[in-house]
Design a protein that fits this description.
This protein has about 210 residues and is α/β, with parallel strands linked by helices. The chain is built from nine helices and eight strands. About 40% of the residues lie in helices and about 20% in strands. Helix 1 packs parallel to helix 9.
Length: about 210
C-alpha cells in the first residue's frame, strides 16, 4: 500500500508535554489497537536527546507499517525519518516545502476556511485539516466550526480531509458519521485513564466506509 493510501482512520496526535516512557508505551497501545496515522506535536526547540527519542518513536511506528507526521518543521521531519510534516498557516510556506522536501507528505491546517483548503489543494497538499469541531483542550484559542461551515466542509471532496478539536468518546460516533478521512484525537487518547480502552473505542467506531 502506498504511504498516501494510509491516510485513513483515527489520527493520533501526541501531547506536547509528555513522559517519554509513558508516551512510548501509549503509542505501542495505539498501534496494537489498530491506529495507523500519528503526528508528533512538539512546539519547543528540539534538543539532540529529543531528536534521538523522536527517531525511536518513528521507528516504532514504522515497525507496524503505520505512518508519522511531525508538526511545523519539515527539517526535523526529514531528520527523524517521518513520512510527512503538518503545517499551520504561520509555518513555512507550503509551496516552498514541497520544492525543498519532495519526499515528505504534507498536511495543512485550514481552520474553517474552504478558501485555505482550496489553496492547499492547488499546492498539492496530501490532506487538509479543519477545526475545531468542539471546544479543544489542546488548542484553547481554536474557534468552533459553525454548523453552516461544517456542512460546507463535509461536502469538500478534493483531497483527504481531517476533522480535529475537542473530539472524545461522547461525540466520536457523531463525528464518524460525517465521513472525514481522518479524525484527529489527542487528549481523549493520551490523557485517558485507560489508553487501550480509548483506542479500542475509537478504532471500533470509526466509519471506514
Amino acid at each position: 500500500m502506498a504511504v498516501k493510501e494510509k491516510l485513513k482512520g483515527v489520527y493520533a496526535i501526541t501531547p506536547e508535554k509528555f513522559d517519554e516512557d509513558k508516551l512510548f508505551t501509549d503509542i505501542s497501545s495505539c498501534l496494537s489497537g489498530g491506529i495507523t496515522v500519528f503526528q508528533i506535536r512538539y512546539k519547543q526547540k528540539v534538543s539532540h536527546s529529543k531528536l534521538e527519542y523522536f527517531k525511536k518513536i518513528v521507528d516504532l511506528i514504522h515497525s507496524q507499517d503505520a505512518i508519522c507526521f511531525f508538526n511545523d518543521s519539515p527539517k526535523i521531519a526529514q531528520i527523524i525519518a517521518a513520512d510527512g510534516v503538518h503545517l499551520g498557516q504561520k509555518d513555512d510556506v507550503h509551496s516552498q516545502v514541497r520544492k525543498e522536501y519532495p519526499n515528505l507528505l504534507t498536511g495543512i491546517t485550514c481552520k474553517d476556511s474552504l478558501q485555505l483548503a482550496k489553496t492547499a489543494v492547488d499546492e498539492k497538499a496530501d490532506y487538509v485539516s479543519f477545526g475545531a469541531f468542539n471546544k479543544s483542550h489542546t488548542k484553547l484559542e481554536a474557534k468552533k466550526i459553525t454548523s453552516k461551515k461544517l456542512n460546507q466542509i463535509t461536502a469538500f471532496q478534493f483531497t483527504k480531509k481531517v476533522i480535529i478539536g475537542g473530539i472524545n468518546q461522547s461525540n466520536f460516533i457523531e463525528v464518524s458519521r460525517l465521513n472525514f478521512d481522518m479524525i484527529a484525537i489527542c487528549n481523549a487518547i493520551f490523557a485517558a485513564s485507560d489508553v487501550e480502552q480509548a483506542v479500542n473505542f475509537f478504532v471500533k467506531h470509526f466509519n471506514f466506509e
